[in-house]
Amino acid sequence: MPLYEYDCQECHQQVTIWKSFSDTSSPCCPVCGSQNLTRLISRVAIVKSSKDRVRDLSWVDKNVAHRLRKQADGGLSPAFEQTLDKMESQ
After folding, report:
1. Which range marks the domain in which residue 28 is found?
2. Per the domain annotation, does 44 fall within a domain?
3. What pairing do the DSSP bridges indicate for beta strands 14-18 and 3-8?
C-alpha cells in the first residue's frame, strides 16, 4: 500500500497516510480529524526483487568488461577473456 503525505490546512501538521490505490475516499488528518488536506509531492520508492536488481545492473558488467579489455590491450588470459565474454552477454 502506498504512503501519501499531506499538509493539514487546519492544524498545519504534515502527516503521512497509508492508502490503497482502490480507496477513493478523502483522507482525514490523524491529528485533528479535518478533511482539509493538501497532498504533497513526495519521493517514490520502488521495491524490486533481488533478481530485478541484478538485471538492472547488467549494464555495469558490460561497461566494466569493456574497460578491462581496453586497458589490457590484448594481454588477457583465455580464462579472463571468457569471464569478460560472460559479463558482456548478460
Report:
1. 3-39
2. no
3. antiparallel
